[in-house]
Amino acid sequence: MEMKEALMMQGARTIMDNCVSLRAGETVLIVTDMVQEKIAKVLSAAAVERGAEVIVSIMKPRKRAGEEPPKIIAESMKHADVVLIPVSYSVTHTFAVKEAAESGARLLVLTDFTEEMLISGGIEADFRSIKPICKGVADAFTKGSKVHVTTPGGTDLWLDITGRRGNALYCVVEPGEFSTIPTVEANSSPVEGSANGRIVADASIPYLGIGVLDEPVVVDVKDGFITDIRGGRQAEVLKRDLASHNDPNCYNIAELGVGLNPKCRLCGIMLEDEGVISTAHIGIGTSITLGGVVKAPTHYDLLMWNPRIEVDGRVIVDGNEIFI
Question: Residue 235 and residue 213: Cα distance in Å, rounded?
């Protein structure tokens, strides 16, 4: 085994032991594509070390985030104990993931994973020690109703989360749960039609090749939908892509998320960026796996620095400080 692969195995073993608690004799389905085969190979080796029955399903790369896997793979996901998904484009917000979780699988999604992400960065976090903080923020969302998000960069957004669950994604899954990795985040899907105000993304939009932002992307929101997008070159990329799908649900305000992984760093890769401390993100498009009811062709996240988040008038996040 070459040196880099040996280092990658350390991260893969963390996933098996700490994230999915893999046991000998369990069935592990690894869903991947041709771009992510090396990541899949290392995950397979770590799972075999632990006595698992490993099946690898390779599909052609999805064309966009949120595109469903082939039906034969989606059906197989329902029958595995553990499903690991290293893919180029996110399938987190798909019926396949939702239904596999409902069938009792333990799922981890590793979107756009690089070899380095198995070696350093967010993967080095102590996920179980972050759990109480992550669950605390998620619980505040579950119990809350009116949310106000502001940032020094200009975000001023009101949301209603009445009756919506808070989701704690801290990279550790039990049967019937999914998480992404290495991002650690608490999120909630607002009531459809409730979001109003302005989003100013000034950290990153880790999709469509946009990545870390050169200048802010300003997004106006009315009655739960985006009404205008402006900024520079990167704003135009987002604007053109959303228009190309010819589906109004792409403009739906789907999520409010808070980054909670102290080891993540902003680099333009979705699952590192979304976990960065002192960031929040607004997800747009599909919301079905988060507690919402909207299915769109896409789900993108707009990240902003130093959020102040109030739930029913109580501050729960202020920059890098969490109050739970």
Answer: 9
- ∠ CA(307), CA(310), CA(314), 5° rounding? 135
Round to whole Å and give the CA distance between 195 and 138.
19
The pTM for the full model equals 0.90
Same domain, 221 and 192: yes
- Which domain does 96 fall in, by range? 3-119
18 and 108 inside one domain? yes
Do 9 and 81 reside in the same domain of the chain?
A: yes
Predicted confidence pLDDT, tens digits, the chain (324 residues): 578 888 999 999 999 999 999 999 999 999 999 999 999 999 999 999 999 999 999 999 998 888 999 999 999 999 999 999 999 988 988 999 999 999 999 999 999 999 999 999 999 999 999 999 999 999 999 999 999 999 999 999 999 999 999 999 999 999 999 999 999 999 999 999 999 999 999 999 999 999 999 999 999 999 999 999 999 999 999 999 999 999 999 999 999 999 999 999 999 999 999 999 999 999 999 999 999 999 999 999 999 999 999 999 999 999 999 998
- Closest by CA to 238, choosing from 170, 272, 284, is 284
- Number of domains forming the structure of the chain: 2
Would the CA dihedral through 139, 142, 144, 146 be positive or negative? Answer: positive
Q: Left if phi > 0, otherwise alpha if psi is -120 to 50, otherwise beta: which for 230?
A: beta
**One domain for residues 64 and 109:** yes
**DSSP codes of every residue in 41-104:** HHHHHHHHHTT-EEEEEEEPPPSSTTPPPPHHHHHHHTT-SEEEEEESS--TTSHHHHHHHHTT
What CATH number is attached to the domain comprising 52? Answer: 3.40.1830.10
Same domain flag for 114 and 138:
no
